[in-house]
Amino acid sequence: MARKSVSQISLVRVSLTCKCPQCGRGHLFVGLLEMAEECEECHLQFNSEQLGDGAAAFIVLILGIVLVGAAIFLETMVSPSIWVHLCLWTPASILGSIVLLRPFKALMLGLHYKHGLLPTTKEK
Ligand SMILES: [Zn+2]
After folding, report:
1. Virtual CA dihedral for 63, 69, 75, 81, nearest 10 degrees?
2. How many other CB atoms are found less than 10 A from the CB of residue 14?
3. Count of beta carbons in the 10 Å neighbourhood of residue 22
4. How confident is the model over 48-71, as pLDDT tens digits?
5. How far is the CA of 106 from the centre of ligand 1 (A)?
6. Distance CA 108, CA 67 (A)
7. Nearest 5°: phi and psi at 34?
8. Distance separating alpha carbons of residues 56 and 117, to the nearest angstrom
9. Rounded distance, CA 17 to CA 54, Å?
10. What is the pLDDT of residues 88-97, one digit of tens each?
């Protein structure tokens, strides 16, 4: 299904602001990590079930590389106790996942919109 006009809103903006990829005004999230059903401005259906776990998979890979690299670096430079590692990397992985999940979900939704995988705007 071809779109009549694709928004010129960049994926970076959609990702960082977590706003609708079509109009740039509507919010993508209704809670911390819960996506809205549709845009409150232009009524674009977000269809968040279609996104799956793609964002979480990217976050696991990215955070895994960064945190394991940081842990190896800390271990080779300072060799702290195992408790230091637990106190550093456990909250860092939890908080990092939560912080990164919104922009990555927004990015996935923006990519779905850009490639025409979202349903068209609901007729009123
Ligand atoms: Zn919108």
Report:
1. 10
2. 25
3. 23
4. 777 888 899 999 999 999 999 999
5. 13
6. 23
7. -85, 125
8. 19
9. 19
10. 999 999 999 9
Please state, in angstroms and rounded to a whole number, the distance separating the CA atoms of residues 74 and 81. Answer: 11
pTM of the model as a whole: 0.81
CA distance 73 to 55: 27
Dist. CA 33 → ligand 1 center (Å): 18
| 33 CB neighbour count, 10 Å cutoff | 12
Distance between CA 54 and CA 105 in Å, rounded? 8
Q: How far is the CA of 81 from the centre of ligand 1 (A)?
A: 50
The partner residues of 27 in beta bridges, in order of sequence, read 19
In order of 56, 72, 76, the CA distances from 97 in angstroms are 8, 20, 25
